[in-house]
């Protein structure tokens, strides 16, 4: 009788004694006893959550093994295992059932139209209704710099931080001479 040992590529990170994972050319591949059993793109988090949950439900590893190997929280691993048990594969890859139905990411053509309307002086809620997106999506795009709000004559809204009016500026961003001082306890 001849004994064969599992052979893993040199850059394999072992999840358990028989389950390993490695990355090559932005593709993550999972191996069981040296045999590839699943792969996905490096930035495909849905597939990652699905397959690691599947490994746990099949008994190939434990929650703590996934948490330790991939440096993700134990609670999130536990949550996705429960999701797999409750909804199956469609819970990870099916249609998103969040309420609202409006996309939270604005695509380039929509961003251009929204920016044009902002330049015309229209308000966020009016633009959101006309474009079929949430007002929160517009606020988020303004916050992260995807969209720029321009001030118009007669507008009382201050949209840029400056030395004269540090509105909504956290204390650590204020110039040193303007930082609030805490009086000593008496």
Please tell me about this protein's structure.
The chain is α+β, with helices and mostly antiparallel strands and 186 residues long. Among the domains are: 13-93, no CATH class; 101-149. Helix content is 37%, strand content 11%. It contains 7 helices and 4 strands. The protein has helices at 45-57, 63-70, 74-87, 90-93, 108-119, 124-131, 135-144, and strands at 13-14, 19-24, 27-32, 35-41. The protein has a 4-stranded antiparallel β-sheet, with helices on one face. Helix 1 (45-57) crosses helix 3 and helix 6 (124-131) packs across helix 7. The chain is elongated, with a radius of gyration of 25 Å. The N and C termini lie far apart (85 Å). The model is unreliable at 156-174 (pLDDT under 50).
Tell me the β content: 5-15%
- What would you report as the Rg, rounded to the nearest angstrom? 25 Å
Gross morphology: elongated
Give the total of beta strands. 4
Give start-end ranges of low-pLDDT stretches.
156-174
Helix content: 25-40%
The major pleated sheet works out as: 4 strands, antiparallel
Strand arrangement, major sheet: 1-2-3-4
Category from helices, strands and their pairing: alpha+beta
What is the tally of helical segments?
7
Distance between the termini: 85 Å
- Compressed to H and E, one letter per element, the order equals EEEEHHHHHHH
Overall residue-averaged pLDDT value:
80
Oligomer state equals single chain
